[in-house]
Amino acid sequence: MSDLSYFMENDDETLRLEIKTDLDNVKRQALWAGLRPGMRVADLACGPGKTTQLFHDLVQPQGSAVGIDGSANRIAHAEKTHSPNGPAFFCRNLLEPLDDIAPFDFIWVRFFLEYHKTDAFQIVKNISRLLNPGGILCLVDLDYNCLSHYGIPERMQRTISRVIHVLENKEDFDPRVGIKLYSFLYDLGFENIDVMMEPHHLIFGELGAVDEFNWTTKVEVAVKKFQFLLDEYENGYDAFYDEFKKAFSNPRRFTYTPLISCRGRRPAGG
């Protein structure tokens, strides 16, 4: 397996993850997947713990939630931010065994597999072993991530596509992992598999503050690392950044990404 790496790492990443997480949507998705009171739930790649706290509240009474993330900074933030009587948090490499803190009745994996194109299926296979027989695994990720825009300059669209292509090859990023989630659970013999697809990054009209911060940070972190791809811009990154800000703030622009949620049960005899 590859080393755990995260190309979006930056000083504001904890804030970005907190701001962009819509708890109403997460709650709806988790309840659809089968999260119920009394369960022991694992929130893998939990980030700053916002979703873990939600899951802890949803499984009461008698349930519990565990948040696991590879970032020591984000785990420290989670432990500081959330109640000591709430979730438990662990800083662990998610590509290594987690058997010592298993088993679980419900495992939630959202926006993690997209950063591990090569090992995504093996990760899911390893995670599935942490479930109790009959336990639920819910995978949530994007398809055609960051690539669906209309009303932006053609050279900007070309540049974004080139950046994503380089991220695939150099950072093991998978912009199309969402379309693979069903096959992962199917190939592992999960039962009662179901799929839900809905829009994500649905942006039109006036640009809201959350989308502005989220997407501006994406550009500042991801695109800035690959300035050699900005050859269509005479002044390089600064010119691209100015064009991006202008185009993305234009209320005519339309952006979306499909979000795919896939749930399944580990066989009772599995």
Question: TL;DR of this structure?
Answer:
Residues 41-135 form the Methyltransferase domain. This protein is α/β, with parallel strands linked by helices and 270 residues long.
Shape: globular
CATH class: Alpha Beta
Give the percentage of residues in beta strands. Answer: 15-25%
Radius of gyration based on Cα positions? 19 Å
The CATH topology: Rossmann fold
Distance between the amino and carboxyl termini: 24 Å
State the low-pLDDT regions, or none.
none
CATH architecture: 3-Layer(aba) Sandwich
Structural class: alpha/beta
- Give the ordered list of helices and strands: HHEHEHEEHEEHHEHHE
Helix content: 25-40%
* Main sheet specs: 8 strands, mixed
Fourth-tier CATH superfamily name: Vaccinia Virus protein VP39
- Provide the domain count: 1
Pfam family, one: Methyltransf_25
Domain Methyltransferase: 41-135
Organism: Desulfosarcina alkanivorans
InterPro entries: Methyltransf_25 (IPR041698), SAM-dependent_MTases_sf (IPR029063)
How does this model look, in words?
The protein has helices at 13-20, 23-33, 50-58, 72-81, 120-128, 154-170, 181-187, 209-222, 236-248, and strands spanning 40-44, 64-69, 88-91, 104-110, 131-142, 149-150, 191-203, 254-265. The protein has 270 residues and is an alpha/beta fold. Strands 1, 2, 3, 4, 5, 6, 7 and 8 form an 8-stranded mixed sheet that branches. One of its GO terms (biological process) is methylation. It holds the Pfam family Methyltransf_25. InterPro entries: Methyltransf_25, SAM-dependent_MTases_sf. This is Methyltransferase.
